[in-house]
Design a protein that fits this description.
Blueprint: H1 14-17, H2 39-65, H3 70-89, H4 99-123, H5 132-164, E1 168-173, H6 177-188, E2 194-201, H7 209-212, E3 219-222, H8 226-232, E4 237-240, H9 247-257, E5 263-266, E6 279-283, E7 286-290, H10 295-298, H11 300-320, H12 322-335, E8 341-347, E9 353-359, H13 382-390, H14 397-403, E10 407-409, H15 416-422, E11 438-440, H16 442-445, H17 455-470, H18 474-483
Length: about 500
């Protein structure tokens, strides 16, 4: 069998992209390789969390009230329902390499659950019927118990898998960066039964020493000897890490291995492409590789939760910060002539123009001027300098959050004139707007604040903004919100 891949344009139909070793003559449904967990394990984890929440509420109410009134029984029903819905959305049952990541997920999920219960109690006018002592104790007890229970559960499952799950001998065809990265990650993933035996050279050329030295697993041989490698090492699963241009070679290899009783899985190597929020999913049995999608169009339920939390937190912040906002209003009013609030056109979601609010920190000037604020800028008032230094001037954007044109967390919106200037100079600059702009963001907590006097500084912001969009999650938003106060004051802010 030849693997030179020299045929005409390769067939990239769904049937050639993902394979399984037991393919019949009919069209086969592609199988997902990575699953969150088996359904039984998932149900067990959901049951365990619901049990912890239920027992904790029973203990708290009986210690205080020596009974479980009907209002608390209804509370428990609502809590269990919310746990079943919210926890999976927050990735509680999604595998993670580090335990503290899972602990953070479940803690934040519980906080969101309790916040939702508080809103329900407020809307149904039943909040006065609950004992504050019971509610606070219940909240803290569950938060304290969930993490060790989660740890014990994962240790038990890991032990069971190690003792009772037969490893699947696997090899990776390809020696590139993607192949090496994938093999190392797969080998460290204790939730999957794969045991990486080694790697195979997928190209018709010798392997340089520089590549061989980077391999974590032994090099078993060349692609021409694949049948002998499979038999010698009792291989049951083969991962092919070759670029799309080698589709013909992959198809030929798959046909040769159909009678070898092995799983054949193609790792689509698009690591060098300019992707945004890419993902793989399945429709009507056909695998779809999404190259460029907004999180707002993919994670619809989580985005709705994000927007709901935005409004709840914005209202709470406006109430809590009202005295500060009042003082800032008076200070701006007396510092220089002009309106207290400065309204400016900026680009929002999908590039639509929005008007954002800020406390006016400069003397009146033409806001179409692309010139950014600089150190010693004579347009900035003394009060404005303090407001900008402490980021108090951004607080009126909480009104934008309530309007729905902005979010608490997201890429910072720049002036329209700035966007027109930088979009011609920086690749993917306007892709920042595939999600709602935010008051704070990953770029801001990473030190990208203040004037962007060079293209390199703006490129750094865009890099962080794209990283945020590609890895967006509710957990990530909470992390950014927590870190934001620590980054509010900086020497480069003026």
């Amino acid at each position: 069998m030849s693997f030179n891949g020299s045929s005409s344009s390769p067939d990239l139909s769904p049937s050639t992209i993902i394979y399984t070793g037991n393919k019949s003559g009919n069209s086969a449904r592609p199988r997902r390789l990575l699953r969150r967990h088996e359904s039984v394990l998932l149900l067990w984890q959901v049951f365990l969390n619901c049990m912890v929440i239920s027992i904790a509420l029973f203990v708290c109410t009986f210690l205080k009230l020596q009974d479980l009134p009907s209002i608390y029984r209804m509370l428990l029903v609502n809590a269990v329902f919310l746990v079943v819905v919210i926890y999976p959305m927050m990735g509680v049952y999604k595998q993670a390499e580090k335990f503290h990541t899972m602990a953070l997920r479940i803690t934040v999920a519980w906080v969101i659950t309790v916040m939702t219960l508080v809103v329900i109690a407020f809307l149904t006018k039943t909040s006065e019927q609950y004992s504050r002592e019971v509610m606070i104790t219940w909240f803290l007890l569950v938060a304290f118990l969930q993490v060790p229970f989660l740890k014990l559960n994962y240790l038990a499952v890991a032990y069971y898998r190690k003792k009772h799950t037969k490893p699947i001998n696997s090899i990776v065809i390809g020696l590139g960066r993607t192949a090496r990265f994938f093999s190392e990650k797969l080998d460290k993933n204790h939730w999957l039964p794969d045991k990486i035996v080694g790697m195979v050279n997928g190209y018709e050329r010798d392997v340089p020493d520089s590549i061989t030295k980077q391999l974590t697993f032994p090099l078993l041989g060349e692609l021409q000897n694949i049948q002998n490698i499979v038999k010698t090492h009792q291989i049951k699963r083969i991962y092919i890490s070759l670029p799309l241009k080698h589709a013909a070679k992959v198809e030929a290899l798959n046909e040769e291995l159909l009678d070898s009783h092995v799983d054949v899985i193609w790792i689509l190597d698009v690591s060098d492409w300019k992707l945004m929020n890419h993902s793989v999913r399945e429709v009507a049995g056909m695998p779809l590789l999404s190259l460029n999608e907004s999180p707002q169009n993919v994670s619809r339920i989580q985005i709705r939760i994000k927007h709901l939390l935005d409004k709840i937190i914005a209202i709470c912040m406006l109430i809590a910060l009202f005295p500060l906002l009042l003082v800032a209003t008076v200070a701006v009013e007396v510092s220089s002539p002009g309106p207290v609030l400065f309204k400016q056109k900026r680009h929002g979601f999908d590039g639509e123009e929005i008007s954002i609010f800020k406390f006016r920190s400069m003397r009146l000037h033409d806001d179409k001027d692309v010139k950014q604020a600089q150190k010693g800028d004579d347009r900035i008032t003394k009060v404005g300098a303090f407001l900008r230094k402490t980021s108090i001037d951004e607080l009126p954007q909480l009104l934008n959050v309530l309007q729905g044109s902005m979010s608490l967390v997201g890429p910072r919106p720049h002036a329209v004139a700035h966007n027109q200037y930088y979009s011609d100079k920086i690749s993917k600059y306007m892709a920042r707007h595939r999600i709602k702009p935010g008051i704070t963001g990953l770029a801001q907590i990473s030190g990208c604040r203040g004037e962007t006097e060079t293209i390199d500084k703006m490129e750094d912001r865009v890099k962080y903004d794209m990283e945020y969009i590609n890895n967006w999650s509710l957990i990530g938003d909470f992390k950014i919100l927590i870190k934001t106060p620590l980054s509010l004051i900086g020497k480069d802010i003026y």
